[in-house]
Task: structure prediction
Amino acid sequence: MAPTRRPGTPPVVTIDVSPAYELLESLVTTFDTGEADTYEIGPEWVAEARRRAGDDLLERITSVSHGDSDTFIHLMGLGYDTPTPRDIPAFLEHLRETEADEIRLHLVQFYARDTRRTTSPSVIRAAIAGDADAKAEFLRTSHPEWEPWTDYLRRVLDVDGEGYKRELIEVLELWAERVWKPESLTIMPIIERDAEMKRDLLRDLPVDQFVTTATNGVEFAPRPGIDRVVMVPSFVNRPLVSYLELGEALIIIYPVADESVSADADSPPLRLVRLSKALGDEKRLRILRVLSDGEKTLMELAEMFGVAKTTMHHHMIVLRSAGLVAVGVGQKRYRLRTETVPDVGALLSGYLGAATGPSAASRAPARPRRRQTGTEG
Result:
């Protein structure tokens, strides 16, 4: 496919809002046991969502997710392709009109370059269609060293496509009615408010700086094959950032800024609360000290501190959401954001009465000189 972006020009960035995205993210948040302690929406919200859903629906959702909450992130591409008015009924209708095999192609991340680089697209399509030899080849070539992925892939390939499609649509419809619909009245205005703020910010910043600011520390460098960056604000996903590659588009689901969330005027700024949490842990302070000497990978940090990668990943999410570290899109290499460290004193003095400005997630830094390409992420 011929590139649609001229070399040296940045990709087009859009801020995209659709209830379908947040419907899917609400499922990720509810069923993601690995990051359950990280989500700012809290265990009470998750417990209430599960209560409204009921045990039978919870079991059915676990089944259609193939035991992996990332299934609902993989479906974001179908939300992106939903025609106007792009509400929940339109999303469900789009799923009904989509071929069963096409839905499963999204589940196996067919439209991500890495997937088609490791396995021939024709082999993937044949595997989804049921060819036994193609299934074996797909499993052999698509990251066979990563057991959770191969287990997930095997479950997707073995399921009956038409039956899966029917069940997926039914459980999404039930979840939307029982859980999402009452929550949407509160959540969607927050998302719309954040989208407007980010559109204003986008006019003032180059692409790479905008993405880092909007995500509070995730760095993006333009790369071949990506012509569009679609920024999707999420409330339930806070403080995590998720990614999905969809052909020439990179979808980034980012947490809405603190200023987009209504709060009591007497409450401390949420960024100050995050900073206090991040800096109130001795190990996280030591991590920052190590990063002051240079970039480190997640594995390097885990080995230096003698902890599991999952434990270190949790620490890095806390530090990144506080604006203290940065990481490249889809990478696990971290650096200290020295430019945000002075914010700590300013936020505290502002809360105690001194004048201060809004957080880095909503203000535009000093306008830089126009550049031709983005920085390395």
The mean pLDDT is 89. DSSP finds 18 helices and eight strands in the chain. Residues 65 and 71 are 5 Å apart (CA to CA).
